[in-house]
């Protein structure tokens, strides 16, 4: 009996996978066979992907939205494609690229064309990953050159902090109460205490 699987991936917890899920659900795939990772595509060490791959059997069909949702590493994509289609003997259907449907193109010419398309798209996904890294590095260098602060915004010394600090030092409130009053975590509060006392 043929089972239908789907794999959905976004690069981070902040990104939304809804567009991919909507397209997958239109196919009527059982929710228990939809696997989602919120993780970079630089490698295949992803929990849901690995679980799905272990479940795949010969004749099953795996749907993905686009080749870069499978991954962004050229050699990795080709290896995983080979593992699934040649070793496990399951099918892969790439929804936004009809040529990449291993159920349809089983003859020699079809296989040649789909393999060629796969190689080109895998290469493009890999190059895009490099471009993303370069853009991030350029953005960081530019921000540093302009003297911009990177990372989390620094907590400032507020009136609430000063009041809480004075009461805490006078023994009127505990450290925990002072942190709550200042609206700071323990680490931030004590860092600000050092800054405040140094100034």
Sum up the structure in keywords.
199 residues, alpha/beta, Rossmann fold, four-stranded parallel β-sheet, elongated
Structure description:
Helix 4 runs antiparallel to helix 5 and helix 6 packs antiparallel against helix 7 (175-182). This protein has eight helices and four strands, in the order βαβαβααβαααα. It folds into two domains: 4-130, Rossmann fold; 159-198, no CATH class. The chain is elongated and about 80 Å long. The relative contact order is 0.09. It has helices spanning 18-25, 47-55, 67-70, 74-87, 108-145, 159-169, 175-182, 186-198, and strands spanning 4-10, 34-38, 61-64, 91-94. It is of the alpha/beta class.
Number of strands: 4
Q: Could you give a short account of the major beta sheet? A: 4 strands, parallel
Query: Distance N terminus to C terminus?
Result: 73 Å
Instruction: Quote the average pLDDT.
Output: 82
CATH fold assignment of the largest domain: Rossmann fold
List unreliable stretches of 5+ residues: none
Total of helices: 8
The CATH homology group name of the largest domain: Resolvase, N-terminal catalytic domain
Shape call: elongated
The chain-level structural class is: alpha/beta
Overall CATH class of the largest domain: Alpha Beta
Tell me the β content.
Answer: 5-15%
CATH architecture of the largest domain: 3-Layer(aba) Sandwich
